[in-house]
Amino acid sequence: xxxxxxxxxxxxxxxxxxxxxxxxxxxxxxxxxxxxxxxxxxxxxxxxxxxxxxxxxxxxxxxxxxxxxxxxxxxxxxxxxxxxxxxxxxxxxxxxxxxxxxxxxxxxxxxxxxxxxxxxxxxxxxxxxxxxxxxxxxxxxxxxxxxxxxxxxxxxxxxxxxxx
Length: 164
What we know:
Blueprint: H1 8-34, H2 40-61, H3 66-94, H4 112-118, E1 130-131, E2 134-135, H5 136-162
Antiparallel strand pairs: 1-2
Helix pairs in contact: 1-2, 1-3, 1-5, 2-3, 3-5
């Protein structure tokens, strides 16, 4: 019976797409399902994941090519950037350094002025949720940086396979 093992390149391509997609899905579930409104730095962490998803899709559309590998490598870098922003955000939450003074609101409603005046202040230095003392920003750091490194390692193995 034959087994169909994935090559390192296939694993890298899938990981580069699945990780940011899963993280974005999780934060939207947290936001809309559990009412955890994002602060400004939470949004900053989402943007590189959106880019990573688009880049990974480009890589998945061009598998086995230099372009595909380059797009997946860029997706890994974008995932890593989100993780780095998550590390900075977690440091702000732990009080290790000061963060930005920006805040965000979820909607303006029918009366924008009243909505702005009554909107809750969403602080970047207060985690909306933690598990074992790790906030969503901390989890983003842990998952994103390790995934970005893994994608790049897997792509490096692809290069070694091609060099044989």
